[in-house]
Write a structure and sequence with these properties.
182 residues, mainly beta, six-stranded antiparallel sheet, 4% helix
């Protein structure tokens, strides 16, 4: 059995053709955002940070678009608990991380601020009142958290990933897309 997938052409549809049938489905918001040059990935290099520090935080700076989080991938060389949290009105501090446009033909730049080893949010001190996910990541492994665009960040809101114990070579990638505010 052979499978052919046809996308694009402005139809907003994805068509799968195999030996038996023709199937169509609408493009997901994420697929459309990639095509429109509005999907981005922010990734840290492996860093050694202190307990309760934020490995990576991404803040939406757009007044016209919401930032929808598609997935987060986190890893560490040391077993530790990780916490994904949201916050708002943060003065972002840390090492700048540039968003990579997932449509490599697009010149669009993400209307967001991203920092690794981010220290401006107060989520650890607030016992993660904005906590979305907490889990234990084993040494030398990674965990992918599929959010499917369900976490929606308006202007001046951020998402971050903290570790609750000192960890070596922590990594984090946040993938998201911008959607016009309704």
């Amino acid at each position: 059995m052979s499978l052919v997938t046809i996308t694009g052409g402005g139809s907003g549809q994805v068509v799968n053709v195999d030996d038996q049938c023709l199937q169509t489905r609408p493009k997901s918001e994420f697929e459309q955002a990639v095509e429109d040059g509005l999907a981005f990935s922010w990734a840290t290099a492996a860093i050694n940070i202190d307990a309760t520090d934020t490995i990576l935080a991404v803040e939406n700076n757009s007044t016209a678009y919401d930032l929808c989080i598609e997935r987060i991938v986190i890893g560490t060389a040391t077993s530790t608990q990780m916490v994904v949290h949201t916050s708002s009105a943060v003065t972002m501090a840390g090492t700048a991380v540039t968003g990579l446009n997932l449509n490599r033909n697009s010149q669009s730049v993400a209307p967001a601020t991203a920092k690794s080893d981010e220290t401006g949010n107060g989520q650890a001190a607030a016992s993660y009142s904005g906590g979305l996910w907490a889990g234990y990541v084993l040494a030398n492994t990674s965990v992918t958290i599929e959010m499917g665009g369900a976490v929606v960040l308006p202007n001046d809101h951020c998402i971050g990933v903290d570790q609750t114990a000192d960890a070596a070579n922590a990594t984090c990638t946040i993938v998201g897309y911008f959607k016009a505010r309704a």
